[in-house]
Write a structure and sequence with these properties.
Radius of gyration of chain A: 23 Å
Distance between the termini of chain A: 47 Å
CATH class of the domain at 15-118 in chain A: Mainly Alpha
Largest sheet of chain A: 2 strands, antiparallel
CATH superfamily of the domain at 15-118 in chain A: Homeodomain-like
Structural class of chain A: mainly alpha
Number of helices of chain A: 13
Largest interface: A-B, 101 and 101 residues
Mean pLDDT of chain A: 80
Oligomer: homodimer
Low-confidence stretches of chain A: 1-35, 249-264
Strand order of the largest sheet of chain A: 1-2
CATH topology of the domain at 15-118 in chain A: Arc Repressor Mutant, subunit A
Chain lengths: ~290, ~290
DNA sequence: TCTCAACAGTGTATGACGTAAACATAATCC
DNA sequence: GGATTATGTTTACGTCATACACTGTTGAGA
């Protein structure tokens, strides 16, 4: 029942009942991510159930939302690894153990912080600008959100429990293609392709965002990543890469998904757009054929 | 110079010189992943330089490759979090500190293990089956590789230094579209789209692979993830999702990217294929237009 | 052949981490 | 006003990466 105080229900007693080995349990906890299916059910429950309102006892100085907000502030300032119970607690002016009155363990806090950090999806651009414009709008927003909070991309999305905001982003995407006449199955397929592309191809820019948030200039970052790729040049094992990298304008200044076009480097956004247009072309073709 | 003994060169002295705070340095180390650009250069160097051959002193009982192989065995048996120095060392019958004679820190070991675990890309299918067949072949292989080693997907690929195998996969992809007459820039763009899609949309199946490798049946996994999504049904905030999920055959048995088609559930592979065909359609259209 | 610097692996210690358990304290109910 | 129940702290434990000091081994140069 949801009326039970959520802050202290058996904690990982449930996990222990599943006969996890100690090592598994600990390692999952330390990484902040667990992949046990029973675990996911329990984690999901925690994401959705409202905290119980106790009548007796001292008043809580915080709310779950306070803790989540502090966690997000900590992660924003550093990265996922900086998000420790100690850091969150001292951000709030409490001892680490105080947080365990609000979340049974770190994992639950991270789950909640992740969903909160996803934020709300963007409002639809215009009333009916066409599905391509709407998909573009959604994709840019998602990409921008991930760049703003690179630590979100350190977590595998699907493995995590799906909170309200996670569902909202999906819902918002489905609305972009709601009037195309596609079947429910096709709608989900389109969602899968586009989201797959957006997540998968944002790796580079997220990596850059992470670096710049640590005070590294884009130039430094590009130099470091580029220098890495340069090893391929003149290596007989990589003739294609060698050719392409060599044909770029002199020195390599950007990573693989960022080649230069006849001396004028393209931005990462341009490369992203190009791919997104190809994906939407493929979807459009499918619609025509139906 | 590469002739220096690689096992003990200043260790994180380099990192300290960068004036990282202690917290940053430690958190990066504990997560096994660092995103500092100067770090990447140093890490990349370690991936490529051959270990120095000392003349004096006792013979080393191990090689870097031994350690890397043990690390991969440990990660395969568990996950990325299970990959601890202690676990790798005891897998080899040594103490944790022994590993530091081969790698300056855990991060370097993980980098090496990741690249080794990527393995070699697949051989080309036939002599000239067409670029679509070749891209399909490459994509399936990449997806299969990630499913076989789900822990690889716990790391952001682009942020890691690029080792020999990483470059080989890129090289192999470029070979699949080498004869299409595309410009070098277009080649890289196509690589970026397809790879983005493959990585991004493999999340679900990788999550399943991870679960099954822990003894969870696909049914259990699907039930847990599906139950999660079911919260959207009848929630007024998610009308589209509600409609789609409700229109599926009775109970939700699979996750968002796995809807059921008129009562007959599709496999994840079928959904993956569908998206890949759309992506390739888009690329084909681009080729035609040129 | 002997010597010793260079190296390999170990033992021990440190500080950060997540979190269990016991506690003091505060708010409510009877 | 005591009993009850919840809150936040204190203390403690086990695990982690890893610094440092140590023992023991090897082969190059004397």
């Amino acid at each position: 029942m949801a009326g039970r105080p959520a802050a202290k229900p058996r904690k990982n007693g449930g996990a222990k009942a599943l006969k996890q080995t100690k090592a598994e349990s600990l390692s999952a906890a330390s990484s902040g991510v667990a992949f046990d299916s029973a675990d996911i059910a329990r984690r999901s429950e925690l994401l959705w159930e409202a905290p119980a309102k106790p009548t007796r006892g001292p008043k809580a100085a915080l709310t779950r939302d306070d803790v989540v907000a502090a966690a997000i502030r900590v992660a924003d300032a550093g990265d996922l690894a900086a998000l420790t119970m100690h850091a969150v607690a001292s951000e709030l002016g409490f001892t680490p153990m105080a947080l365990y009155r609000y979340f049974p363990n770190k994992e639950a806090l991270v789950d909640a912080a992740v969903d909160a950090a996803l934020g709300s999806p963007p409002a639809r651009p215009g009333p009916h600008e066409g599905w391509r414009a709407e998909i573009r709008h959604w994709s840019y927003a998602k990409r921008a959100m991930l760049c703003a909070r690179p630590w979100l991309a350190e977590l595998p999305f699907v493995a995590a429990p799906h909170g309200p905001n996670w569902l909202s982003w999906h819902e918002a995407f489905l609305r972009t293609i709601a009037h195309t006449g596609l079947s429910p199955e096709d709608l989900m397929d389109v969602l899968s392709v586009v989201q797959g592309y957006v997540h998968g191809s944002s790796d580079t820019i997220i990596s850059l965002a992470r670096a710049t948030s640590r005070g590294i200039t884009p130039e430094q970052w590009a130099a470091a990543v580029g220098a890495d790729l340069c090893r391929a040049i003149n290596d007989p094992r990589y003739p294609m890469l060698s050719g392409i990298l060599a044909s770029s304008s002199g020195g390599i200044t950007e990573t693989s998904s960022l080649p230069t076009k006849h001396g004028k480097p393209r931005t990462m956004d341009e490369c992203f757009d190009w791919g997104l247009e190809r994906v939407m072309d493929g979807i459009a073709l499918y619609m025509e054929r139906k």
